[in-house]
Design brief:
The complex is a heterodimer of chains A (154) and B (387). Chain A has 154 residues and is α+β, with helices and mostly antiparallel strands. Chain A has 2 domains: 4-61, Arc Repressor Mutant, subunit A, CATH 1.10.10; 73-152, Glutaredoxin (3-Layer(aba) Sandwich), CATH 3.40.30.10. Chain A is built from 7 helices and 4 strands. Chain A has helices spanning 7-15, 22-33, 38-48, 52-61, 81-85, 88-99, 141-152; strands at 73-78, 112-117, 129-131, 134-136. Chain A has a 4-stranded mixed beta sheet, with helices on one face. In chain A, strand 3 (129-131) and strand 4 form a beta hairpin. Chain A is elongated, with a radius of gyration of 17 Å. The two termini of chain A are 21 Å apart. Chain B is of the alpha/beta class and 387 residues long. Chain B has helices spanning 19-28, 31-41, 53-61, 83-106, 123-140, 160-167, 196-208, 210-213, 247-254, 302-316, 322-340, 347-361, 365-380, 382-386, and strands at residues 69-74, 110-115, 145-150, 191-195, 224-231, 237-242, 259-264, 270-273, 292-297. Chain B has a 5-stranded mixed beta sheet with strand order 6-5-9-7-8. Chain B has a 4-stranded parallel beta sheet with strand order 3-2-1-4, sandwiched between helices. Classes of the chains: A alpha+beta (154), B alpha/beta (387). Chain A binds chain B through residues 18-24, 26-27, 57-58, 61-65, 79-82, 84-85, 117-126, 130, 133-135, and chain B through 76-82, 85, 116-121, 149-155, 166-173, 187, 228-232, 236-238, 267, 294, 300, 304-305, 308-309, 312, 315-316, 318.
């Protein structure tokens, strides 16, 4: 759990207090903290003067607006057909072995979450993953180990 | 330039042009002249649905409400499509230019680009380029502004009315139609929503003239199109080709010599088996595509392909209407049960009927098109689904 502090205020200053400000505000919180807590969503509802249920309704619709606890770095492995054909299974096994978590789980130090996702638009360079916003493509087991090591030392 | 496979490779979309020159030319035209030019070019929407762009603009232009929008649909989520990312990465100024021309045609002062969350890494670069673009149109003396809205990982937001809901801060659930976006779009205002590639194509049409552009392609599918090629191919990537080729010509160029099927148009598109390569034209007279072309060779199980697509749809259905929500889940369960031998293979016929029902009864394009891949894969590769 994190303390949302002044972040919601900062985001409403930047994006406004209209209904259409909701998505960029929620995206801003996720960018900083990886997921949305109940407290954060209640805070957003207060600032925008709408019901917390409305905020949760919007948040829960979108895969990238997680309402479950997530790590600092969210690894999303593309599971759609081309990545699936070109070795997605091996990539997942490698990450699972390395981080000692299964798909859907978060490491105990809250550094990494491992998730599967639908087509991220890199089929010509499969298999591909996203770590937070950044894509990594044409992966092999060796490559993905190096990439994640890089994040461990960040 | 024809090569030995009979494919005509074209370089319009990524061609470097002087945007100021094209826009100055466009702004000297009346809005009727722009619409007429786009109508004459025969351009149909490049996102996949293929609605005539000129007609969309004509309808939006005829609306009386002065508060109108031009929205660029950059929520490229169809499995196997990645050409809009490449276009934005390499020639975003042409996307912005196309939006400015559209704004002149329909009478809008504001544009919105809805970019999928998966492409957020491009945003800093796109914003820098947008700033330069705003400077340029200020110099020309044209009053128009573009802003970005980001998606957050929902495939359904590529559906136009779901996209509007998302911009407005709501769940991305498609609306009932009519009213169509040209009457009631984003913020319930008259809106023209166009695909990234469509907008770039407009820049090329204004630059070269409808009559020149018109010479490319066929009667039903004018011009050229950017294809996203992936799967079992030695040359995956992005290729701009003249429309009107057969699947066979495509396979001759991109196949690995052992192609047994091509999925045209992604998970919501059609599966073309080898025996139909020769007779099937890629375009609106045959199998339409937003650009996704996936090749499968004989080492691939078409059951796995179908299962992957159904799993995709079961996850991405917004859940709002019953035919799609329950239908996607039942199709997935159904093929699993057929494969396991828990039900008779004739159960597949029932599932095809369900897919047909979804086509008629679903609220939006997602549920309506699940049956495309389902029917074409089951009909052509029945043994692979059962055994």
């Amino acid at each position: 759990m994190y303390q949302v502090g002044t972040l919601v205020k900062e985001l409403t200053e930047k994006h406004g207090r209209l209904r259409e400000s909701l998505m960029p505000i929620l995206q801003g919180i996720v960018e900083r903290h990886s997921y949305l807590t109940d407290d954060a969503m209640v805070e957003v509802a207060k600032e925008l003067d709408i019901s917390a249920a409305e905020v949760y309704g919007t948040a829960s619709f979108y895969t990238f607006l997680d309402t479950k606890v997530r790590g600092k770095y969210i690894i999303r492995v593309c599971k759609t057909i081309t990545c699936s054909m070109k070795g997605k299974g091996e990539i997942i096994e490698t990450i699972e072995d390395m981080l000692k978590i299964k798909v859907g789980e978060t490491t105990s130090d809250r550094m990494f979450s491992l998730l599967e996702t639908n087509c991220i638009g890199w089929c010509h360079k499969a298999p591909a993953i996203l770590i937070n916003d950044l894509p990594y493509t044409e992966l092999t087991s060796e490559k993905v180990v190096e990439i994640i090591k890089g994040y461990m030392h960040k | 330039m024809e090569n030995n496979t009979g494919l005509n490779k074209v370089d319009l979309i990524f061609e470097k042009i002087d945007p100021k020159e094209v826009l100055t030319k466009a702004f000297e035209m009346t809005n009727e002249q722009i619409i007429q030019e786009v109508l004459e070019s025969g351009l149909k929407g490049r996102g996949g649905a293929g609605f005539p762009t000129g007609l969309k603009w004509k309808y939006t232009a005829s609306e009386k409400d002065p508060d109108k929008y031009i929205v660029c649909n950059a929520d490229e989520g169809e499995p196997g499509t990645f050409k809009d990312r490449e276009i934005l990465d390499r020639v975003s100024y042409k996307v912005y230019g196309g939006m400015a021309i559209a704004s002149k045609a329909i009478g809008a002062k504001n544009g919105i680009v809805y970019l999928r969350g998966e492409y957020r890494f491009l945003l800093p670069q796109l914003m820098r380029e947008l700033e330069l673009f705003h400077k340029m149109i200020d110099e020309i003396g044209y009053d128009f502004r573009i802003r970005y809205c980001m998606g957050s990982g929902a495939y359904i937001c590529g559906e136009e009315s779901a996209l509007f809901e998302s911009i407005q801060g709501d769940r991305g659930e498609p609306r009932n139609k009519p009213p169509y976006p040209t009457t009631s779009g984003v913020f319930y205002k008259p809106t023209s929503i166009n695909n990234v590639e469509t907008l770039v194509t407009v820049m090329e049409i204004i630059k070269h003239g409808a009559k020149t552009y018109n010479q490319l392609g066929t009667k039903d599918s004018r011009g050229s199109k950017v294809f996203s090629v992936s799967g079992d191919t030695p040359t995956p990537g992005i290729f701009e080709l003249e429309l009107g080729m057969t699947v066979q010509q495509f396979v001759n160029e991109f196949g690995d010599g052992d192609t047994k099927a091509v999925q045209v148009g992604g998970a919501s598109g059609f599966c073309v088996p080898r025996k139909k390569f020769n007779e099937t034209i890629i375009g609106f007279e045959g199998v339409p595509t937003g650009g996704s072309m996936k090749l499968f060779n004989s080492s691939r199980s078409m059951y796995n392909v179908l299962h992957n697509y159904l799993d995709f749809f079961a996850e991405e259905s917004c859940g709002q209407c019953t035919p799609c929500r329950v239908g996607c889940q039942q199709l997935l369960k159904g093929v699993q049960n057929v494969k396991k031998g828990d039900v008779k293979s004739t159960y597949l016929n029932e599932l095809v009927k369900l897919a047909d029902t979804m086509k008629v009864a679903s609220k939006c394009g997602l549920g309506q098109s699940v049956g495309n891949a389902f029917r074409t894969i089951v009909e052509n590769f029945r043994e692979e689904i059962i055994y």
